[in-house]
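Private note to self, pasted from the team thread so I don't lose it. Backbone tokens:
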């Protein structure tokens, strides 16, 4: 009988700490519902003390998700723990994750606290969190660079104080697999009360080793892994959920554990997260990249056709590939539309929002005829992107074109603070001309850091999903837009990024000093 490996997803917290990946409350709810469908055990829904918006998002996720435990992050300080405790209150099962740094460099340079003070604070934080829930996780931040004896001391004290999960973060992605596995083994064998808590791995991917380090920890006895969809996360990201889960599932001969994950939901979850955050998935990414199951060279194809296992170690359909089938069409009615959205975990606050989405669906079905789940997700993502609260800019009309031998040009009409304005520009390409025309009207002072287009489904009639990353005075935002016309999608993404630059709240980072 295999032991259960708890899958703790932190896409909505550590994932959101990627520059430009911030999500709205509605987007977080959509992702959380999909994570629940994926059968993730614990969803870290955010850092409630970061801002009122973050608090509300965690609270909303805790209210709608029923099957997964909802976790809120808190530094080891009173306000964070109280906010996390209040935010997870509506959850069927709620957890507080509190942490404090334990490496010499973090204690000295960031916290300016002595080791004794850190132990005392950790114990206090765990006890305070237990006032709100019996399910308390404690992390010694930067454990990967902490001294073993001190780690043992602080963890033993945290377990005595009531921590039920002990998470070991390699915060800066410095460890290598053998070392991280040994660390986990040493902690489990040296700490006298280690059997009173589940030990967990939280690895960052700075050296590209997050999945390997997490697997080494599992081999050494960790029974929870913290991960994110598509490996999203600060800097080079976190352990990719899909890779970790499929490694454990595919190599059952090597691991004494299994997960509850419904692997058939992996691809849909990956696409939802990349659509909402604008972080595209590279084609050669394991499990969820477009080429992950594509056999191009003739010799491989021949082998696969004769006997699948010659070149395939997993079945594409087991992670959700090729289940992409037409779900709605030109003649589908409003109730079919509504019920398919409900199956995808998408609900609208008002009947008017549903009606507006239905109108957009009909427009799309006229252009595209066959509508897939991916189209519906993109349509809803686009809808929420174009409806930011307090938006200053909105696209009214676009006329862009290119003729061989002439400079491409664009004329854009925008709604700016309620006033319609029009400007034209030429550029190196039509997208460039469109962005220049927009800039003539808004004069944003922001710089364009990244621009990418991907198709939502196959075929030239596919919706194009465009992502634009912009930076202004150190703030980074990602804008999204989708449309069957990629120039329109690009204009929408650019405008969405401008609106986000205007409206994004400043929030505190959990790993900055208090
Ligand atoms: O990487 C890290 O150390 C973290 C902690 C907050 C657990 O994300
Ligand atoms: Zn982290």
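Design output:
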């Amino acid at each position: 009988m295999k032991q259960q490996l708890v899958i703790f997803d932190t896409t909505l917290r550590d994932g959101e700490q990627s520059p430009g990946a911030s999500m709205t409350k509605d987007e977080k709810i959509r992702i959380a519902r999909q994570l629940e469908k994926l059968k993730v055990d614990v969803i870290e829904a955010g850092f409630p003390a970061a801002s009122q918006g973050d608090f509300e998002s965690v609270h909303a996720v805790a209210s709608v998700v029923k099957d997964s435990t909802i976790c809120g992050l808190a530094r080891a300080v009173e306000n964070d723990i109280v906010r996390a405790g209040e935010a997870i209150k509506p959850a069927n099962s709620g957890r507080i994750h509190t942490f404090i740094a334990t490496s010499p460099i973090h204690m000295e340079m960031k916290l300016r606290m002595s080791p004794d003070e850190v132990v005392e604070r950790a114990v206090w934080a765990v006890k305070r969190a237990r006032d709100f829930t019996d399910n308390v996780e404690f992390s010694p931040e930067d454990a990967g660079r902490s001294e073993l004896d001190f780690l043992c001391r602080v963890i033993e004290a945290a377990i005595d104080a009531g921590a039920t999960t002990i998470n070991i973060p390699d915060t800066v992605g410095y460890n290598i697999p053998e070392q991280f596995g040994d660390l986990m083994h040493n902690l489990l064998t040296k700490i006298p009360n280690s059997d009173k808590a589940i030990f967990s791995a939280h690895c960052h991917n700075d050296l590209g080793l997050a999945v390997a380090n997490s697997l080494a920890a599992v081999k050494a006895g960790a029974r929870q892994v913290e991960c994110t969809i598509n490996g999203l996360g600060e800097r080079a990201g976190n352990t990719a959920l899909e890779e970790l889960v499929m490694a454990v599932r595919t190599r059952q001969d090597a691991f004494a554990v299994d997960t509850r994950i419904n692997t058939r939901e992996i691809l849909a979850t990956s696409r939802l997260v990349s659509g909402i955050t604008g972080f595209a998935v590279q084609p050669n990414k394991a499990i969820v990249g477009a080429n992950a199951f594509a056999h191009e060279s003739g010799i491989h194809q021949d082998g696969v056709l004769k006997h699948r296992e010659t070149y395939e170690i997993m079945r594409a359909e087991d992670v959700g590939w090729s289940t992409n089938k037409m779900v709605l069409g030109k003649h589908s009615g409003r109730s079919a539309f509504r019920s398919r959205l409900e199956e995808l975990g998408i609900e609208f606050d008002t009947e008017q929002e549903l009606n507006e989405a239905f109108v957009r669906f009909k427009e799309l079905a006229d252009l595209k005829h066959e509508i897939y789940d991916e189209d519906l997700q993109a349509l809803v993502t686009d809808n929420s992107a174009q409806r930011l609260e307090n938006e200053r800019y909105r696209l009214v009309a676009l006329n862009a074109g290119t003729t061989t031998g002439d400079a491409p040009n664009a004329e854009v009409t925008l709604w700016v603070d309620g006033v319609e304005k029009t400007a034209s520009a030429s550029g190196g390409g039509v997208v460039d001309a469109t962005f220049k025309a927009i800039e003539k009207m808004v004069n944003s002072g922001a710089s364009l850091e990244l621009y990418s287009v991907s198709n939502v489904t196959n075929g030239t009639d596919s919706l194009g999903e465009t992502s634009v990353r912009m930076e202004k005075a150190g703030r980074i935002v990602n804008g999204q837009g989708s449309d069957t016309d990629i120039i329109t999608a690009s204009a929408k993404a650019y405008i969405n990024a401008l609106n986000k630059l205007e409206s994004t709240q400043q929030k505190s980072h959990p790993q900055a000093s208090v």
